[in-house]
């Protein structure tokens, strides 16, 4: 995987098939949507959310402005859809990696998940920059989307932890641990060190495993 979640289509890139009978209207919309999502991430990662315009997005996607508004009412809606699609893709890959580890070995599950998460983030620098640095400033709906993402990560961690047979911690403990990891993640991205994210694997694994050992609460007898 590499830059599957962002991209600019150059002027000499193949366009969508044209002419009667080549693609029906719904097929055209389905083909245009991922181009717009990838172009939005690419533009916002490069110049920032506030500076990005719909014109920037459609130019990168090689899609007409009218086609953009058939899909999205605003730039914000397009960006949130792009982040949501990317988030789902990343989580699928992380869950697949974690499922390949022994479910009873909490440390092994965490390591497999963190290794894949950091690998994917480093391989998708535009998407990583866009959601990490630009999403919080894209309005209240974007903040809610970010919080939902953190909640999903915490809930996934809680599920893995309980499957390992370990005593459960509180919901806020899982959320705090995820937040702690993402703060260091944010600093790397903000400092232009996205390619170096995989080096955080040991720190994240240590933080998550020892953190839960300290804050686990016993189950009721």
From TrEMBL:
PROSITE patterns in the cross-refs: HTH_TETR_2
UniProt KW Cell division keyword: no
UniProt keyword Amino-acid biosynthesis present: no
Annotated stretches, region: Disordered: 1-28
Source organism, top-level taxon: Bacteria
Name assigned to this protein: TetR/AcrR family transcriptional regulator
Pfam families: TetR_N
Molecular function as annotated in GO: DNA-binding transcription factor activity; transcription cis-regulatory region binding
Domain HTH tetR-type as annotated: residue spans: 30-90
Record keywords: DNA-binding, Transcription, Transcription regulation
Residue range(s) of DNA binding per entry: 53-72
């Amino acid at each position: 995987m590499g830059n599957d979640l962002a991209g600019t289509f150059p002027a000499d890139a193949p366009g969508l098939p044209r002419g009667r009978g080549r693609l029906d209207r719904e097929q055209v919309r389905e083909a245009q949507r991922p181009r717009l999502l990838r172009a939005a991430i690419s533009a916002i990662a490069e110049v920032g959310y506030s500076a990005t315009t719909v014109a920037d997005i459609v130019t990168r996607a090689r899609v007409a402005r009218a086609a953009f508004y058939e899909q999205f009412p605003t730039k914000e809606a397009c960006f949130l859809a792009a982040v949501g699609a990317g988030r789902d893709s990343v989580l699928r890959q992380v869950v697949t990696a974690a499922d390949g580890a022994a479910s009873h070995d909490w440390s092994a599950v965490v390591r497999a998940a963190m290794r894949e998460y950091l690998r994917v983030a480093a391989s998708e620098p535009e998407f990583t920059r866009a959601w990490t640095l630009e999403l919080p400033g894209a309005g209240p709906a974007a903040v809610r989307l970010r919080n939902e993402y953190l909640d999903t990560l915490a809930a996934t961690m809680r599920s893995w932890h309980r499957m390992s047979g370990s005593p459960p911690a509180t919901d806020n403990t899982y959320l705090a641990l995820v937040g702690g990891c993402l703060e260091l993640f944010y600093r790397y991205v903000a400092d232009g060190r996205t390619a170096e994210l995989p080096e955080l694997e040991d720190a994240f694994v240590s933080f998550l495993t020892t953190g839960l050992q300290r804050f686990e609460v016993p189950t009721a007898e």
